[in-house]
TrEMBL record:
Name this polypeptide is given: Clavaminate synthase-like protein
Domain TauD/TfdA-like: 99-349
Endpoints of the signal sequence: none
Chain positions covered by the region annotation Disordered: 1-20, 390-425
GO biological process, one term: antibiotic biosynthetic process
Organism per entry: Coniochaeta ligniaria NRRL 30616
Pfam families reported in the protein's UniProt record: TauD (PF02668)
Gene3D superfamilies per record: Clavaminate synthase-like (3.60.130.10)
Compositional bias of kind Basic and acidic residues: 404-413
Keywords: Antibiotic biosynthesis, Oxidoreductase
Any one GO MF annotation of this record: oxidoreductase activity
Domain of life: Eukaryota
Amino acid sequence: MAPGALVEETSSLSPHHTASKNEAALRDIFPDGIRTSGQHPPLYDALKPYSEFPKEISGPTVWRAEEYINNPERWVHRFTADEIEELGDTTDRFLASGTPLTGISKENFRLPKLSKLLQALRSDLLDGKGFILFKGFPAGEWSPEKTAAAYMGLGTYIGYFVSQNGRGHVLGHVKDVGDDPTQIHKTRIYRTTARQFFHADDSDIVGLLCVHRALEGGESDIVSVHNVWNTLQREHPDVAETLTKPIWYFDRKGEVSEGQEGWIRQPVFYIENGGKGRVYCKWDPYYVRSLTRFSDAGLIPALSEEQLYALQVLEDTCQRLSLHMILEVGDIQFVSNAHLLHARTAYKGEFLPTRIGASPVLFLSRRLTRTTRLPCACSKTPSASIVARDSGRRRRLGASNARQRREEARRNPSEQQPATGSVGCRVSLREELAGHTLN
């Protein structure tokens, strides 16, 4: 789900004001100004055939909801009074310095106590279970400015801020702005109250801070991609194979540079190009089902029955294996996009959590100090969308030139609370999308 804006909609800022903010961004954070996650085609000669994929994946990234439903101590951290005091004092000093939010760094946002916890968390997000829920953030007590700065300050210990939409946002609000969710070829679902099916954003990590509760719904589900893969290999190997073929077209929804196509062709599952050769997943059914304007014109093939079956099996499997959570005000959820998919139920009511990637949502890319490992198809120039040396672990399928491109993050939870485990209700993705106007 893509973020809306930094504290308020950017449309309220003049071009000059926006430029000055970019100019003021610290160059050790954004060496070339604000950077983005990018939407780039994969390196097709780097894609691996199904025969080279593992039959089963093992390790800490493979987890089952049952392991966490009744064990919140394994994935929930409640901020202590000392931690909140440190965070609040550091935030006040940062705001007093006049540095723009995009200039936050570990150097100017010191957290001696919390930093150790956050660094360990970063490792777990990238190489472990891939998610954490913080509770007790004083979202209802601090001003929007202080809340945003504190949230981004926490994020700088976990990753590198990146934008994932054409507006350059890295921190935004998840809320209903009246967009029509049936016009999925041009609407970002995070800007509506509609259900968001399981998907991954293009940043390596996404954060969601709950500042308001929805009146009803807006709950969050997450699932281990590697558990999903293992399950597909056992139950639907034909579907697993279909999902590894570069026959899937993803809508860029108009966020293209001159001369570029309005879509990207790639597989859903792919193997990391170099590094540990991990299996990654790039998926968002709304971006796959919204392309009839191109297929009707004969520019790309329409989804085959094989693909329609595969996307429904994938969604059903995710729902069945997912961990369900309800966010409360003051909760912060950080989720890895490298080996997790997430979803949000439809909601009613005016308010939803804000994200920097969520209610406010934060989109982060991991910072690499070693050779970049791009899944399957990344860029010849590792930089792409995040900043050279970073190309996030799942900066997967394409991150090539340093163009300001990004794919919106469309995910947002709304309420989450450690527990309510989900053996999810089955929602037919095929039926729900069937009636949407795509042209």
